[in-house]
């Protein structure tokens, strides 16, 4: 592979990745914080997950992963009785807002930051 081609390819991949990251996080984290406080943090906060291995850590997870999970619980593609009940009343924008807020929180997960 020529050096120029390889540099161009790397730049294209980097641009594509950051465009994708922006495209997927179309949520409002301020609104997401309110929704999380009202509906999610009793199970997904630091205190809630301490010593409880049934409730996963989602703080700091990628927004698109969180959004996809919430959509999958709603569609039934991901089958979990607890989470199905949680997402039932959420609009797509609610899910985006929640994904946006949770992805910005510091938590116990290690997810490499995007450039
Ligand atoms: C009563 C406790 C409880 C509440 C409240 C709750 N969750 Fe969950 N959540 C769970 C459990 C249990 C799982 C694991 C389900 C599974 O095995 O798929 C889970 C899984 C998830 C996952 C997938 C995590 C992963 O690593 O794949 C996401 C995302 C999530 N919850 C988001 C939310 C959001 C957003 C809310 C608020 C709207 C919420 N949860 C409210 C208990 C809860």
Automatic annotation (TrEMBL):
InterPro entries: Cyt_c-like_dom, Cyt_c-like_dom_sf, Cytochrome_c_Oxidase_Subunit. Residues 27-106 form the Cytochrome c domain. The keyword Transport applies. Keywords: Electron transport, Heme, Iron, Metal-binding, Signal, Transport. PROSITE patterns: CYTC (PS51007). Pfam families: Cytochrom_C. Residues 1-23 form the signal peptide. Transmembrane segments: none annotated. It comes from the Bacteria. GO terms for molecular function: electron transfer activity; heme binding; metal ion binding. This is Cytochrome c553. It comes from Natronocella acetinitrilica.
């Amino acid at each position: 592979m020529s050096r120029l081609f390889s540099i161009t390819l790397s730049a294209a991949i980097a641009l594509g990745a950051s465009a994708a990251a922006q495209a997927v996080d179309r949520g409002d984290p301020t609104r997401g914080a309110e929704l999380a406080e009202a509906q999610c943090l009793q199970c997904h906060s630091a205190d809630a997950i301490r010593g409880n291995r049934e409730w996963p850590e989602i703080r700091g997870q990628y927004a698109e992963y969180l959004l996809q999970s919430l959509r999958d619980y709603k569609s039934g593609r991901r089958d979990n009785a607890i989470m199905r009940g949680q997402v039932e009343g959420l609009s797509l924008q609610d899910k985006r807002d929640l994904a946006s807020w949770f992805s910005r929180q510091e938590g116990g997960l290690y997810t490499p930051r995007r450039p």
